[in-house]
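HOLO CASE FILE
Compound: oxa(dethia)-CoA
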Amino acid sequence: MKSAKIVGLGKYLPSKRLTNFDLEKKVDTSDEWIRARTGIKERRIIEDGQGASYLAYKSSVIALKRAGMKAKDLDLIIVATITPDTQFPSTACYLQNYLKAAKACCFDVSAACAGFVYALVTAWQFIRGGLYKNVLVVGSEVLSSVTDWQDRSTCILFGDGAGAAILTPTSKNGFLSAYLGGDGSQSDVLILPGGGSRLPISKEVIDKRLHYIKMRGNELFRLAVRIMVQAAKKSLTKAKLKIEDVNLLVPHQANERIIKAVAKRLNIPLDKVYLNISRYGNMSSASSAVALCEAWEDKKISKGDIVVFDAFGGGLVWGSCIIKWI
Ligand code: UT7
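Model generated. Tokens follow.
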């Protein structure tokens, strides 16, 4: 049976750094509190006028180059994002135009922090089904555009960035299993209430700051730990693998304490867990994409390795996917 493999990875982080000390000047918080509660030291912030497609473009060019592929050979572009340039057209369409990938069909995936995992699994299925060959998957977010910079309970968490992966068919078994899930009954735990069709932008929406992320962090924390543990276990069982077979866990980077609690419950030693939250904060769908790219750049992934993705976010949505690096 046809499977897929990742043949190129790229990432792009805006150069502007926002440190915890910078945030101390904006809201009532401290570097000490942020580091202790989240593990974050700094995050990146996009320049004014740029959108998710710009970050996606920068990361995609690198991934294409590393894959030795021309943009004109792409069949499909999937961008995972909850901060699209515009409600429509999709960010994938803007990206297609920047890349001059005229042959590629394009769409966005909205699955919050699990977006990159959802998009990877979607790409794998398109390749497996035989409809497309060369697929670009990007996680790109400009969370600074939906962050309430007056709300200390959320503004310390988020950052901007993008990561890209190129997938192609293989006769070997590259993608071993996936487990995706959702629970729409808990949509209000993490939500951007305003600006959609239910509550279009208005003066009232802006006055009530409903065009920014609202989060019940404490509740989410507990849900994240429980669900990420379950998701990783389910995808491992589906792949007929044991925890000991895992070479690298690439978790969504929402909070270092969440990641450490998940690793502990899964019994995976921390040297097998990729962590970069201290430098970038939570970049939603871009977190897993950037983490995968950096893990590969840092030579933490070798041929034959079992790599496990494990992500969770607003929706609620979650996803775990297992790749054998070939
Ligand atoms: O990406 C999708 C998934 N996202 C997540 O999973 C996020 C999950 N949640 C979290 O990461 C954590 O809940 C936070 C980091 C958001 C908050 O950490 P916490 O340990 O859950 O803190 P808390 O909300 O229980 O607040 C503890 C105290 C409160 O004060 P009191 O009521 O104890 O006096 C807060 O008002 O910390 C206060 N606080 C702050 N203090 C200084 C909240 N935010 C801040 C802040 N600086 N930035």
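CASE NOTES: The longest helix spans residues 217-238. Residues 29, 33, 37-38, 113, 152-153, 156, 190, 217-218, 220-221, 224, 254-255, 258, 282, 313 surround oxa(dethia)-CoA (CB under 6 Å).
CLOSED: yes
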